[in-house]
Design a protein that fits this description.
42% helix; alpha+beta
């Protein structure tokens, strides 16, 4: 669904490119190339966050450092498939440099024809819901990594199909994706940052801070808490946003980023976008958010530890129903 909307105009203006010669990178339309760059960047930053914090996650899984995409999600998928040189609709969109999938020999624009023992052709593509197939495929990759710690995929190469065995690495549970709007959101399982999000082009540490904030919502099980306690009431939203702000520097530090990146993000974003008299009542003011983050960093320095599983103090949310992990 996301890519269908995001790329609807890319081919409508008559953009076309010839398929790449063997061994050469494809000549992508600029908008498609930009989307690929964003995908790779968010995949890599998210990989650092979820692997760097795996030892502190009670319910850790494994990750392959791999992003697949489906031509069914694009306005003119057949044209894009030809440009990318894919043999069918599902291919490799992005890899973490030096990550498990790349180490196993997976390449950008490999055509993927099987996940484990499941043929990609057997995954359903529902009419009017072009995202269903890739979601099912991604769910299967996550299931295999979760259950076995490894993932085998079959790709097409010049000599025919080959099986590549990927040894996953421990990771917290969060999938990181680019979406087609201006928001950054978490749904309990995914972190989705819009391609038009105001900070999408900020330096890596600042964008990582946004991703860490959203990942914090997943780790703290905020979505499940809201579902169990009657929805997103304003007071509770403010407290969960504050809690995610406070946890984010711990996650950044464990991923090798400066934990002050969150405070730097709000100091850059806030004066222009955070409002003053127009501040959202569901969030603390940007300057208050900086103060909460800096207080957490001071606590980490006092403790000499970034083990948030032992030392992070959660907010007291006003709900009546407790949620596991909170």
């Amino acid at each position: 669904m996301i890519r269908w909307i995001a790329l609807a105009i890319f081919f409508a203006i008559g953009v076309a490119s010839a398929p790449a010669a063997a061994g050469q990178a494809p000549q992508l339309p600029s908008a498609v190339a930009e989307l690929r760059t964003q995908d790779a960047r968010v995949l890599t930053l998210g990989y650092r966050l979820k692997t760097g914090n795996a030892r502190y996650c009670q319910d850790a899984t494994s990750t392959a450092g791999l992003l697949l995409h489906d031509m069914a999600l694009y306005k003119d998928g057949e044209t894009l498939r030809r440009i990318l040189g894919l043999g069918s609709d599902v291919g490799v969109q992005a890899l973490v440099s030096g990550g498990p999938a790349e180490r196993a020999g997976v390449r950008i624009d490999d055509t993927v024809i099987a996940i484990g023992t499941s043929d990609v052709a057997d995954f359903a593509l529902e009419d009017g819901k072009p995202w269903t197939r890739i979601e099912a495929i991604r769910a299967e990759t996550e299931r295999l990594l979760d259950e076995t710690g490894s993932l085998s995929i079959t790709v097409l190469r010049g000599t025919g199909p080959i099986v590549l065995d990927i040894e996953g690495v421990p990771a917290c549970r969060s999938r990181f994706e680019i979406g087609d709007d201006s928001r950054a959101v978490a749904d309990g399982h995914r972190v989705v940052i819009g391609s038009r999000f105001v900070g999408i082009d900020y330096p890596d540490p600042l964008l990582a801070a946004v991703l860490a904030h959203e990942m914090s919502h997943n780790l703290l099980r905020h979505r499940a808490w809201f579902d169990a306690n009657g929805g997103r009431k304003q007071k509770a939203v403010r407290l969960t946003e504050r809690e995610a702000d406070r946890l984010s520097p711990w996650l950044l530090a464990n991923a090798g980023f400066d934990p002050r990146a969150g405070a730097e993000f709000f100091s850059k974003w806030g004066p222009v976008h955070g409002g003053w008299i127009f501040r959202a009542r569901s969030h603390d003011g940007w300057d208050e958010r900086v103060e909460f983050i800096e207080a957490e960093i001071a606590e980490m320095e006092t403790l000499g530890s970034t083990d948030w599983s032992q030392h992070f103090v959660k907010e007291k949310l006003p709900g009546k129903v407790r949620v596991a992990g909170r």
